[in-house]
TrEMBL record:
Residues 100-127 form a coiled coil. InterPro entries: V-ATPase_116kDa_su (IPR002490), V-type_ATPase_116kDa_su_euka (IPR026028). It comes from Eruca vesicaria subsp. sativa (Garden rocket). It comes from the Eukaryota. It is a multi-pass membrane protein. Its main location: membrane. The lineage of its organism: Eukaryota, Viridiplantae, Streptophyta, Embryophyta, Tracheophyta. Essential component of the vacuolar proton pump (V-ATPase), a multimeric enzyme that catalyzes the translocation of protons across the membranes. Required for assembly and activity of the V-ATPase. Pfam families: V_ATPase_I. The keyword Magnesium does not apply. Belongs to the V-ATPase 116 kDa subunit family. This is V-type proton ATPase subunit a. The chain crosses the membrane at residues 423-446, 467-485, 548-566, 586-603, 638-655, 757-778. Keywords: Coiled coil, Hydrogen ion transport, Ion transport, Membrane, Transmembrane, Transmembrane helix, Transport. One of its GO terms (cellular component) is membrane.
């Protein structure tokens, strides 16, 4: 048997790649180039030899800090380009590689230039906004001042010391002279303050003015005809022009303080029409000059950003790679002479030759006189787990890794999940019409694979695109199971020939519930279309799907136990085979394997035996005659034998293994044997070729016994609960079928029964939305999650430890934008 198993060809994904712990001794002058070339190869995972040091205590901390600062500057440029709405496509011609120091100087110069232009632009924009506000106030306040002309003369009512939110909005000497001109001391006359305020602050502003002056003021307002850009947020803001009439110096002081508190900008408006025209002409002239200056500044700034944008992608990639190189160099240690860096890491065994060639090329390119020393070390800890996957298997491997990363060279469930996962999904989702819809979606993702892979997708779309091959297989298996169930949006078709049933006479030509008799061989593939709508449709399909669910569940759980045997054999744990695998197989198949056998025999013979009665009385009255429930000769003594084997298997799982482990430990302790104990319970980290097995560990018999007790109880109870858990295949399949039937009969057919075209269209739309959102989205997600549960718990729980850790090589291809 062992010879036969040894001759079987190995599966690529069945076991993780063999890993080797290697040591590198690299001369300092070629260290950077060596690590860079290894990052391009991407097959070496470095170990951190400076784990006890903080990031600031490491050798290349300054270089990492410089790269971080350059990354900040590049992100600043990217934000500025996005903010300006520029589209800078990278240059297609080859650009020479730039040194890190030169890049750092260029980025500093560009940043200084852009910051200076931003500062000047912000000042100009603020001045422009204030002049624009002044123009609007001059235009709008004139109407209020004309009506108040009878109350005071122009020179007495003009406010010459108008306050400003920023003193830089007026630069002409005439306006400044007007601002500083002394005001006639007329405390009893009517005076006014004009200005502009944000619309959202107007109501509170007016209420505060009323309370502060105790109602002794007149507040006039009018909306501005144009929105004004806020320089800080670059958003257009709607503002309101106001004029407040009041009397007295104390009221003027209060109003000015309230304007300052609410961010209202006040501007002097003369009542004299000649002065208003003069001011307006002056403001418009300044606005025209500022617009030209702002446009020229914006063009100059966009030119500078475009010059940066052409090389931005390449620069970001360069900085990211350099930072990753220096982060990796920080994991290395200096040797005693301080002339070489010493590093350790894991690599796949097949990659040793490639790594050696890369190191030789790096030594040659760096003109180093001393080559890199590359040699294999003895491993102490457990190696990382590495599976080579492709586009198809990668998604299934990610599903398994979401539960737990496989222990080093442990049997990989992803090999079998490529088939079993979409198949169990399809058992619950079986409808070849819905399967075709899923297939179209998967084909769309595959057709746009190259384009979508280069785009930044949202979280939901990224998840769909990553699982495109999973969706493809789920769709194909759903079509297959839908053909077996003979359901196309719940409608049966005579695809594989005519029905095996026909009417007994001419009176039942339209009958579906009575009068049908079988007149020829069964329907060649799948469920006979005549079952649809018959009186016994639901009992028949329930019985079929429930028994099929049990058969599939027992088969998959047995597969899990068989994989536990191959795991134990691979790791050389004979105790796990004798005292775990064998009793578990006996217990599971003595009860539920026997139930599966009865189901198959009943299907083949057409017997009317009650399997519920058989299984219940197998425990309650094993010696009682079966009567009409007997399916084959010798069934009663076989049931007694199977029941005894199941009872014997429980203590077989529980007691021998802890005592056998204790005996082996005592023999080793007394020096009578020195063999490595090959069992997962004594040393969970021991792997083939590992030095850990030679280390002495404390043996706690009570802990091992309790662990074995828990494991045995869990398996015995889990055999029942896990088998029942597979009945979800029947339940979800039934729910999906009945929902499809309800939407088809109670929505589409009901609407089609009316002659009104509008009602038919409404029914068709409701049916389409119900199919898309309930059956194709919610039901797909439900079946996906239930298939996930069956694999994670019922299947993988039989053999999978999942306590390993992933192989994460230093690779430039794996560096993402978030790693900055």
């Amino acid at each position: 048997m062992d010879d036969f198993l040894d001759k079987l060809p190995q599966m690529d994904l069945m076991r993780s790649e063999k890993m080797t712990l290697v040591q590198l001794i690299i001369p300092v002058e070629s260290a950077h180039r060596c690590v860079t070339y290894l990052g391009e190869l991407g097959l070496l995972q470095f170990r951190d030899l400076n784990a006890d040091k903080s990031p600031f205590q490491r050798t290349f901390a300054n270089q990492v800090k410089r790269c971080g600062e350059m990354s900040r500057k590049l992100r600043f440029f990217k934000d500025q380009i996005d903010k300006a709405g520029l589209r800078c496509s990278p240059r297609h011609e080859l650009e020479p590689d730039i040194e890190l120091g030169d890049l750092e100087r260029q980025l500093a110069d560009h940043e200084h230039e852009v910051l200076e232009m931003n500062s000047n632009s912000e000042k100009l924009r603020q001045t422009y906004n204030e002049l624009l506000e002044f123009k609007i106030v001059l235009q709008k306040a004139n109407g209020f001042l004309v009506s108040s002309n009878a109350h005071a003369t122009g020179d007495e009512t003009e406010l010459h010391e108008g306050t400003y939110s920023n003193n830089g909005f007026i630069e002409t000497s005439s306006l400044l002279e007007q601002e500083m001109r002394p005001e006639p001391l007329n405390q009893s006359g009517l005076r006014f303050i004009s200005g502009i305020i944000n619309k959202d602050k107007l109501l509170r502003f007016e209420r505060m003015l009323f309370r502060a002056t105790r109602g002794n003021m007149l507040f006039n307002q009018t909306p501005s005809d144009e929105e004004i850009m806020d320089p800080s947020t670059s958003e257009m803001v709607e503002k309101i022009v106001f004029v407040v009439f009041f009397s007295g110096e104390q009221a003027r002081t209060k109003i000015l303080k309230i304007c300052e508190a609410f961010g209202a900008n006040c501007y002097p408006v003369p009542e004299d029409t000649t002065k208003q025209r003069q001011l307006t002409r002056e403001v418009l002239s300044r606005l025209s000059d500022l617009e030209a200056t702002l446009d020229a500044g914006t063009r100059h700034r966009n030119d500078a950003l475009n010059a940066v944008g052409y090389s931005l992608t390449k620069w970001m990639t360069t900085v990211r790679r350099e930072k990753a190189v220096y982060d990796t160099l920080n994991m290395l240690n200096f040797d005693v002479t301080k002339k070489c860096l010493v590093g350790e890491g894991w690599c796949p065994t097949f990659a040793k030759t490639q790594i050696h060639e890369v190191l030789q090329r790096a030594t040659f390119d760096s003109n180093s006189q001393v080559g890199v020393i590359f040699h294999v070390m003895q491993a102490v800890e457990s190696p990382p787990t590495y599976f080579r996957t492709n586009k198809l298997t990668n998604a299934f491997q990610e599903i398994i890794d979401a539960y737990g990363v496989a222990r080093y060279q442990e049997a990989n469930p992803a090999v079998y999940s490529v088939v079993t996962y979409p198949f169990l999904f399809a058992v619950m989702f079986g409808d070849w019409g819905h399967g075709l819809c899923l297939l179209l979606g998967a084909l769309y993702l595959l057709a746009r694979e190259r384009k979508l892979s280069s785009q930044k997708l949202g979280s939901f779309m990224e998840m769909l695109f990553g699982g495109r091959y999973v969706i493809l297989l789920m769709a194909l298996f759903s079509i297959y199971c839908g053909l077996i169930y003979n359901e196309f949006f719940s409608v049966p078709f005579h695809i594989f020939g005519g029905s095996a049933y026909k009417c007994r006479d001419t009176t039942c030509s339209d009958a579906y519930t009575v009068g049908l008799i079988k007149y020829r061989e069964p329907y060649p593939f799948g469920v006979d279309p005549s079952w649809r709508g018959s009186r016994s449709e639901l009992p028949y399909l329930n019985s079929l799907k429930m028994k099929m669910s049990i058969l599939l569940g027992i088969a998959q759980m047995n597969l899990g136990l068989i994989l536990s045997f191959f795991n134990a054999r691979f790791f050389g744990s004979s105790l796990d085979i004798r005292y775990q695998f064998i009793p578990q197989m006996i217990f599971l198949n003595s009860l539920f394997g026997y139930l599966s056998l009865l189901i198959i025999i009943k299907w083949c013979t057409g017997s009317q035996a009650d399997l519920y009665h058989v299984m219940i009385y197998m425990f309650l009255s094993p010696t009682e005659e079966l009567g009409e429930n007997e399916l084959f000769w010798g069934q009663r003594p076989l049931q007694i034998l199977l029941l005894l084997m199941a009872f014997i298997a429980v203590p077989w799982m529980l007691f021998p293994k802890p005592f056998a482990l204790r005996k082996i430990h005592m023999e080793r302790f007394q020096g009578r044997t020195y063999g490595v104990l090959g069992t997962s319970e004594v040393d969970l980290d021991v792997e083939p070729g590992s030095a850990r097995g030679h280390q002495e560990e404390e043996f706690n018999f009570s802990e091992i016994f309790v662990h074995q007790l828990i494991h045995s109880i869990e398996f015995v109870l889990g055999s029942v609960s896990n088998t029942a858990s597979y009945l979800r295949l029947w339940a979800l399949s039934l729910a999906h079928s009945e929902l499809s039937t309800v939407f088809y009969e109670k929505v589409l057919l009901l609407a089609w029964g009316y002659e009104n075209i509008l009602i038919r269209l409404i029914g068709l739309v409701v049916f389409a939305f119900a199919t898309a959102f309930i059956l194709l989205m919610m039901e797909t997600l439900s079946a996906f999650l239930h298939a996930l549960r069956l694999h994670w718990v019922e299947f993988m729980g039989k053999f999978f430890h999942g306590d390993g850790y992933k192989f994460k090589p230093f690779s430039f291809a794996l560096i993402s934008d978030d790693d900055e």
